[in-house]
Design the sequence.
């Protein structure tokens, strides 16, 4: 289902008859039961499992390939007091997975230290120089966290130095695995672990559980943060980790987390997966993006309140800096793309001034805006290399897209939807050319409409706080367990206003035919909604939630998309030409007056076309044009209506401009006509153009009416005009003339009627007029 104005293709849920919603023993609302049915939950056992907020689905850690070998090696190192290094990563998942293993080994009496690589000096994954430094200092065993499956060179180096490397990772694996002592990975090709989507912290939790012979609750809290922040599937074992971890977080003893949430003004009883995804995760990530990820680990591990205060303040400052840098880079990329003649199949941009630590975030924003795979790079002049991050559509596997250019990359790794990569300066041109060629080859996959699968079509009277509470039982929501996407059809806008410091968000109140109301809020949707107005009917999709304000709790929808059935009419009616009217692309501009058309032809976008209304015929094709601009008031409304029935424009912009209002002037009455006749009959020939204004004032007849009267007299042969001079025909008129049957009178009357509709009726009436069948 594709509606005008909508950014996405809405996939509607299957329809079922009412008895299918009645599940024995389940006392839920009809709307919630429809949702359960749509998600394949059709019996009490399945429903109970899906709604259980205290699951205990922890798989045996020894089901992971190489786990027994890994545990034996670590235990041996502990017994022999070998120096152990935990080598982590600089994001939230890497920070938490490192701390999980560090605390577990420390509890077992190991001689253990950790290192979180610096994004800018070390890059992602095993770094041969850092390995060399630590091996020279006496490290005898290295355990990686949230990295390692792509670290061939550094791991081979360690092996040559007789240092074992245990890899614990969850990232996508290439065909050849590194020569590590053991590899703990839920997707190990020789393994058979029952759940493949653990995060790096989830994998670390399994190793810690095997070492301690129990599941450490303090580690579950950390694993929850890594799992949510890394956006892995929140199903199966991950759902258990997240729900149990959230319970721990609400009663956390980690003073650093307490201080971090206090600074963000988060109440602990309301902590949710969204809190982790939007508050904790980004703040931990900001440490590795702009500074040293160890700051984040120290915050999570400290037991000193003073240190927690300082660290949380430092992290909050880094997060604010990260936001500013991100916004600036994003705006620069938008400016670059807008200056290009067309949007590329894949967006590849680079700049030496761009901060490499935030490029992944910026790439996500660019992806959401333009729906194209995105690769953004920082160019390091001193190193002679490009280091970047990429994000991709659900329909395009970015990992394999980059893999096609592996010969032109120094390093890359990641997932189907996100990747990091480094390219040498001498490889850059070949890489860009190659990746663009590959993107062009799969253009159909890139350009296919993005789908939004709707879970539930709902009426406004079904949206209650009870339903909101039922929906929450399906959480936590995230990858693999998406928040239920709800559709509300054909509701009318009551109020609409732009909000936020930059007016980039929108807030609406809509109602149905029974005047049942709901508030909608759309973040970063002001541009999409800028032409909506009260009394307009819309359909929306979004997420239902509760909103508390002034101690009052109400239901609210967070908008994800908005659409209009049929053509969207935009109101540009005014006494002057709005400059924005000239900015539409791929539009047909409809004029009545050749001189006005020529005046504006060069002022509109080159992708648009100017036409006189008499030139626009039903047999012509305008399928390449999305918008019709009715620039001037048309002379023939019926013809325009016939033409509009032949085309499916997304938008119709109504300006209907005319310099003078015939409707407000009105038709001349009998007395005005007789007065003009008597005056003209007494005049010698005169120049009409220069005399018209004084004649209007002398006779007290508005100039528009006077022009019509003269046209009528000309048609009735009462007067004649030659070379701009008017002469009264002083002959006997034996035959009476019905002035109201004259063509000039009827045309004027038709213009009045057209103006009465196009200028003074609301858009809802006008759109209905053109859409209804006569």
Sequence:
């Amino acid at each position: 289902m594709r509606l005008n104005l909508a950014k996405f293709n809405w996939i509607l849920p299957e329809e079922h008859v009412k008895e299918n919603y009645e599940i024995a023993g389940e006392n839920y609302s009809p709307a919630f039961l429809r949702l359960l049915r749509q998600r394949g939950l059709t019996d009490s056992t399945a429903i109970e499992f899906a709604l259980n907020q205290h699951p205990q689905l922890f798989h045996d850690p020894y089901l992971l390939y190489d786990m027994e070998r890994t545990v034996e090696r670590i235990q041996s190192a502990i017994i022999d007091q070998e120096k152990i290094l935990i080598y982590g990563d600089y994001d939230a998942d890497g920070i938490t997975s490192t701390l999980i293993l560090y605390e577990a080994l420390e509890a077992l009496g190991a001689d253990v230290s950790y290192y979180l690589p610096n994004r800018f000096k070390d890059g992602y994954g095993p770094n041969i120089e850092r390995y060399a430094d630590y091996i020279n200092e006496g490290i005898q065993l290295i355990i990686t966290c949230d990295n390692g499956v792509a670290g061939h060179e550094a791991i081979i180096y360690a092996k040559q130095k007789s240092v074992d490397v245990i890899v614990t990772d969850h990232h996508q694996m290439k065909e050849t695995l590194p020569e590590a002592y053991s590899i703990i990975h839920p997707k190990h090709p020789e393994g058979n672990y029952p759940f493949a989507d653990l995060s790096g912290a989830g994998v670390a939790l399994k190793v810690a559980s095997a070492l301690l012979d129990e599941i450490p609750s303090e580690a579950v809290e950390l694993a929850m943060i890594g799992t949510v922040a890394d956006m892995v599937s929140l199903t199966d074992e991950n759902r258990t980790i997240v729900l149990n971890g959230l319970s721990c977080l609400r009663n956390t003893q980690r003073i650093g987390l307490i201080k971090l949430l206090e600074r963000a003004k988060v109440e602990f009883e309301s902590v949710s997966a969204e809190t982790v995804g939007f508050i904790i995760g980004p703040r931990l990530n900001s440490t590795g993006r702009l500074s040293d990820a160890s700051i984040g680990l120290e915050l999570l591990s400290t037991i000193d309140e003073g240190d927690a205060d300082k660290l949380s303040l430092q992290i909050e400052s880094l997060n604010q800096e990260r936001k500013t840098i991100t916004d600036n880079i994003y705006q620069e990329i938008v400016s670059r793309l807008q200056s290009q003649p067309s949007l590329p199949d894949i967006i590849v941009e680079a700049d030496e001034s761009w901060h490499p630590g935030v490029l992944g975030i910026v790439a996500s924003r660019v992806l959401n805006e333009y729906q194209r795979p995105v690769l953004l790079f920082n160019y390091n002049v001193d190193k002679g290399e490009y280091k970047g991050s990429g994000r991709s559509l659900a329909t395009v596997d970015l990992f394999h897209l980059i893999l096609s250019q592996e010969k032109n990359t120094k390093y890359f790794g990641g997932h189907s939807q996100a990747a990091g990569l480094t390219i040498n300066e001498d490889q850059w041109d070949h890489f860009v050319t190659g990746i663009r060629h590959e993107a062009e080859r799969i253009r159909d996959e890139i350009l296919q409409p993005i789908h939004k699968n709707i879970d539930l079509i709902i009426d406004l009277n079904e949206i209650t706080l009870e339903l909101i509470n039922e929906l929450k039982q399906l959480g936590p929501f995230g990858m693999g367990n998406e928040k239920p996407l709800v559709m509300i059809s054909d509701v009318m806008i009551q109020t609409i206003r732009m909000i936020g410091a930059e007016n980039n968000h929108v807030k609406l109140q809509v109602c149905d035919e029974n005047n049942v109301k709901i508030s909608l809020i759309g973040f970063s949707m002001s541009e999409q909604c800028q032409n909506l107005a009260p009394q307009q009917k819309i359909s929306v999709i979004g997420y239902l939630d509760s909103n508390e304000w002034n101690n009052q709790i109400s239901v609210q929808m967070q908008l994800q998309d908005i659409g209009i059935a049929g053509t969207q009419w935009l109101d540009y009616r005014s006494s002057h030409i709005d400059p924005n009217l000239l900015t539409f692309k791929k539009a047909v501009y409809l004029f009545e007056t050749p001189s006005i058309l020529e005046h504006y032809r060069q002022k509109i976008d080159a992708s648009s076309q100017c036409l006189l209304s008499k030139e626009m015929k039903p047999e012509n094709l305008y399928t390449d044009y999305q918008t019709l601009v009715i620039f001037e008031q048309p002379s023939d409304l019926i013809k325009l209506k016939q033409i509009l029935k032949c085309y499916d424009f997304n938008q119709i912009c109504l300006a209907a401009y005319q310099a003078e209002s015939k409707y407000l002037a009105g038709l001349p009455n009998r007395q005005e006509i007789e007065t003009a006749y008597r005056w003209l009959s007494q005049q010698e020939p005169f120049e009409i153009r220069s005399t018209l204004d004084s004649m209007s004032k002398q006779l007290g007849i508005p100039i528009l009416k006077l022009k019509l009267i003269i046209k009528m007299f000309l048609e009735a042969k009462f007067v004649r005009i030659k070379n701009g001079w008017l002469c009264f025909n002083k002959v006997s008129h034996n035959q009476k003339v019905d002035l109201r049957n004259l063509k000039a009178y009827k045309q004027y009357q038709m213009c009045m009627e057209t103006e009465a509709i196009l200028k003074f009726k609301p858009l809802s009436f006008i759109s209905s007029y053109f859409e209804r069948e006569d």
